[in-house]
Every structure is written in C-alpha cells, then in structure tokens.
Design goal:
nucleotide-binding, 8 helices, two-stranded antiparallel sheet, HisK_dim/P_sf, Sig_transdc_His_kin-like_C, extended, five-stranded mixed sheet, HisK_dim/P_dom, phosphoprotein
Length: 298
C-alpha cells in the first residue's frame, strides 16, 4: 500500500492540477498555468495544456478587442451621420415651411443640402470600402504602372481643392524610375486620401512637396510633405486608426470622418508595402511627411 501510494501520488497531483485549470478555463479565466509535475508524460501533457490555454487567451483578447472596436465603430458612425442628417433635416423643414422667401438664401440652403448629402455618401462609400478590405473582398490583381501617371491622375482629381487654398505642388522625381506593380484605382485612392489630408492641414498659399525614390529593396517610396502645424507623437502613432482624429472635438472643420488614412493603410498593406508618417511640431511650418512604398514590377 505504501509503494502504491508513493507511486500514484504524483499522478494524482498532476491530474488534480489539470482539473483545477480546466475549471478556471470553463469560468473564462485563461491566465493560469498547469505545473509540470509527475511523470514525463504528464509534464508533456501539462506543457501542451499550457500552450492551448495561451492560444485560448490570445483568441479571447482578440475577441474583446474586436468587440471594443465594434462599439467604437457604431458610436463614431452614429456621430458622423448625426451631424449632416440634422443639418439636412433643419434646412428641408425650413424650405417646406416657406420660411425662406429670398431667392439667394433659398439657393444657398439647397447648396448646403447638396454638400451634406455628399458628405453622407462619402462616409458610406468609405465604410463600404473598409468592410470590403477587412473581409478580403478586394483581390490583388496588379498591373504595370508608372509613378508619374499615378501622380498626375491623383493631382487632377484634387485640382479644385488645390486652387481654392492657392497651394503649390513641388514634385521631385528621379530621371529613371522603374514601373511599379499596383492596382491603379486603389493606389489613386491612397494617394488622394493622403493628399487630401495634406491639403486640409496646409496653410493658404503653402507648398506640398511630393518626392519619389527607389529603395535598395524592390520598392519605390513616395513621400508627401506638407507645411501644416504637424502633430504630436501620440497622434502620429494613431493617425492610421479608424475614426481617429487629432482634433478631439471632432468639429466639422477638422476634416473627414477619420477613415481615409485607415483605408490607405489597408490598401498599401494589400500591395505588400508599408506606410508611415513623420512629424515635427517643434519646427514652425515643418508639417508632416507621409510616406508609403510600392512594389517594383519585375
């Protein structure tokens, strides 16, 4: 009996430890670890059990993070939809009640309704694109394309905004730049989103510098430098997060809904590239420099 007791005691301890940990897991606690005691087979079982617990904990944390992101998404979408909807409703009610008799004011009200409707449409399109990228619904089918054509097409679509703020575009391209393998429409969206951000934060009459260079790796890097106020380091670390705005008040003058740069990051990563930003607020009119890489066509 003594021999049996001393031989089975380590087995009982190992089984008891695993049983306790399974009870903790069933209650939603994944932080525990099973001690590696007993025979070698039980130690291997404990090691595998701890590995499984770690994976469960990692998955559970991702689920928690996804739930928090979902709640933030709903709250932010509600916020960004509420403002234009309230504005449209107020102007429509004023027009319906025949409050506005002046023709010029009537036209101005209609123009405001049109602009607010455009804002709503833009937000819906951005949400659709972001959900499409998250779901993997955008297939990567690259084609051979030249960087100068990409820049020209993107700048043409923003000609009105550039003229309105009297901004100058300074482009620095090397004489020989290899073509890149991209989806042109998607990359035009990336460049337009970054340029739109630069235009909003640039002073009237300022200059936006666009540079391109070939890296040692098979990539071409594009840099977009504005002359805005720059941003704090905490903001630059979160600027590509969804719905993030450096302006905590989220006023209409602060720009879009905060999805443009998140979409840009997803598209660049779909191409196998990287994207980032550098900013120095200490130097007056230094602004921010956004950059991203494009794969060279082989």
């Amino acid at each position: 009996m003594l021999i049996h007791y001393y031989m089975t005691r380590p087995l009982e301890k190992a089984i008891h430890a695993i049983t306790q940990e399974t009870t903790q897991i069933s209650e939603g606690h994944f932080e525990g670890q099973v001690p590696q005691i007993g025979p070698i087979e039980f130690q291997r079982l404990a090691d595998q059990f701890n590995y499984m617990t770690g994976k469960l904990n990692e998955s559970f944390q991702k689920l928690r993070s996804a739930e928090v992101s979902r709640k933030e998404l709903v709250a932010n979408v509600s916020h960004d939809l509420r403002t234009p909807m309230a504005s449209i409703q107020a102007f429509v009610e004023a027009l319906q009640d025949d409050v506005i008799q002046d023709k010029a004011t009537f036209a101005r009200y209609l123009q405001t309704i049109r602009l607010e409707t455009g804002r709503l449409d833009g937000l819906i399109q951005e949400l659709f694109k972001l959900s499409q990228l998250d779901a993997g619904g955008t297939e990567f089918v690259p084609e051979r394309y030249h960087v100068d054509h990409l820049l020209l097409d993107s700048l043409q679509s923003l000609a009105f905004q550039l003229e309105e703020k009297q901004l100058q575009i300074d482009i620095d391209l090397p004489d020989r730049l290899p073509p890149v393998a991209i989806m042109p429409q998607e990359m035009k969206r990336v460049l337009s989103n970054i340029l739109d951000n630069a235009i909003r934060h640039s002073p009237v009459g300022g200059t936006i510098l666009i540079q391109a260079k070939q890296l040692s790796a098979p990539y071409v890097q594009l840099n977009i430098q504005d002359q805005g106020q720059g941003m704090e380091e905490a903001d630059s670390n979160k600027i590509f997060d969804r719905f993030y705005r450096a302006d905590p008040s989220r006023t209409r003058t602060s720009g879009g809904a905060g999805l443009g740069l998140a979409i840009a990051k997803s598209i660049v990563e779909l191409h196998g590239g990287t994207i980032g930003v550098e900013s120095q607020t200490a130097i007056e009119s230094r602004g921010s420099r956004f950059w991203f890489t494009l794969p060279i066509d082989k």
